[in-house]
Amino acid sequence: MVKTASLLKFCLLLLLLVHAGHSFGQGQINGFDIPRISPIPAKVSNTQQTHILLHGKWDFQVSGSQARHSITVPGEWEMQGFTVKEGETAVYSLKLDIPADWKDQRIKIRFDGVSSHALIKVNHIKVGEHEGSFVPFEVDITKALHASQNLLEVEVQALTMSDRLACTSQYAVHTVGGLLRKVTLFTLPQINIASTIATTTFDPQFKNAVVKIQSGIANESALSASVQFQYVLSDASGQVVFQKLSPVSRPAGPNTTTGVETTIAVKQPKQWDPEHPNLYHLKSTLLVNGKAVQTINQALGFRQVEVKGNQLLVNGKAVKLRGVNRHSIHPLTGRSISPELDRMDAKLFRDANCNYIRTSHYPPSEEFLNAADSLGLFVESEASLCWINHGASPIWKKWNYKDERFLPYMVNADVENVLAGRNHPSVVIWSLGNESVWSPLWEKVLAVVKKLDPSRPTTFHDQCWGGFNNAHSTADIAVYHYPGISGPAACDTMKRPVLFGEYAHVSCYNRRELLTDPGVRSSYGKPLEMMYDSMYYHKGCLGGAIWSGIDDTFHMPDGRIIGYGPWGPIDGWRRPKPEYFGMKKAYSPIKVKHINWPSAGKKYIELSVENRYDFSSLNEINITAIINGVSRTVKSGIAPRSSGTIKIPADQVKMLEISFKDPRGFTADEEKYETGAEEAIPAGQNLALSYTENEAAYVVQQGNIAYTISKNTGVIISARKGDTEILKQGPVFSMVPMNEEDGGKPNVAGETYQNNIYPLKNYPCYTLFANDLIVQKTDSGLKFSMKVSYLDCKGKQSYFFTNDGKLITEYEVQYTKADISPYQYGLMLQLPKSFEELNWKRKAEFTVYPANDIARPEGTAMLNAKPMNAVEEWGVVQKGDWKDDANDLGSNDFRSTKRYIKNASLKNSNGDGITVLSDGTQASRSWLQDGNINWLIADYCNNGSEPFYGSPHTNGRIKIKDNTLKGKLTLVIK
Question: What is the spatial distance between Cα 525 and Cα 579, in angstroms, rounded to a whole number?
Answer without folding.
Answer: 6
